[in-house]
Amino acid sequence: LLALLVGLAPAAAPAQGFAGMAGDAAGFALPAPDRALSFPADHAAHPGFRIEWWYVTATLEGPDGTPYGAQWTLFRTALRPPGPDANANGEGEGEGWHSPQIWFAHAALTSSDRHLFAETTARGGIGQAGVRLDPFEAWINDWSMAAPATGAPPGADALSRLRLSARGPGFSYALTLASDDPLVLHGQAGFSLKSPRGQASHYYSQPGYRVDGEIDLGDGLVPVTGHAWLDREWSSQPLAESQTGWDWFALRLDG
User: Fold this and answer.
1) What does the DSSP 8-state code read for residue 37?
2) Tens of pLDDT along 181-199?
3) Which of 9, 11, 175, 248 has the fewest CB atoms in 10 Å of its CB?
């Protein structure tokens, strides 16, 4: 199965790159090749970095073999670097409307002849969106990616079992994800180099989810099964000055 994901590549991007991510990152934390990723801590937000995302894509099939696709993405971006009151992780920089964190999300449901999608935004610090641990939940407004209170094997990763839900004009889905596979760390133990000049991100994935649940494309609920993968990435300057964005795609092989 092949899913093509095209993102962060506007048709007429300014010279500094998408969302200024090739611009000056002064004051923000930068990825480092000697930083070891730690779980479950790194499943949470990293407010000291400028941008990050939690990205789930699923290839699904109805009872009659009809193929579908689902996508759920939560982004966090900071309006300014952490202030003097923040700790080394960028936390404690202000609550309520003083928080510089902006959250936005995109969800989609696709069939062979329809692509339905929705976007939503929220401010950080006032409870509209965020990511918490124990149990894990990433949410924005009424969209959620959350670990169930029970059901995960002892010692399993915090993201090994997830419930994923979103809705938009004419569509909705509620999916259950489960995997017993280890997380995949990209690049050098999760340090993913983006350009010869050293721009990079911290990046890991869980590509082994089994999925079941229900979708609605406006014609009523359809039970589905399938596979999904999650991408987690955070950085402050992932693009060089000569780069304006990137495209990417994912291949799921039969073996």
Assistant:
1) P
2) 999 999 999 999 888 887 8
3) 11
* Amino acid at residue number 107: A
Which two tokens mark 34? 């000697």
- Which residues have C-beta within 8 Å of that of residue 244, sequence separation ≥ 6? 9, 10, 13, 14, 15, 17, 18, 22
3 state DSSP class of 5: strand
Give me the residue label for tokens 């996508």. 71
The values of phi and psi at residue 60, to 5°, are: -125, 165
pLDDT digits (tens, 9 = 90+) for 222-234: 999 999 999 999 9
Which residues, including other chains, have CB under 8 Å from residue 15's CB and lie 6 or more apart?
A: 241, 244
What are the pLDDT digits (tens) for 232-250?
999 987 777 777 777 878 7
> By the 8 A CB rule, do 117 and 108 touch?
yes
Contacts for 33-38 with beta carbons within 8 Å, 24 or more apart?
Answer: 33/188, 33/191, 33/200, 35/190, 35/191, 35/202, 36/189, 36/190, 37/185, 37/189, 37/190, 37/202, 37/204
Q: How far apart are CA 1 and CA 110, in angstroms?
A: 14
CB atoms inside a 10 Å sphere around CB 83: 13
**What is the model's pTM?**
0.85
Q: Is the pLDDT of residue 111 over 80?
A: yes
As given in the structure block, the two tokens for residue 195 are 């350009």
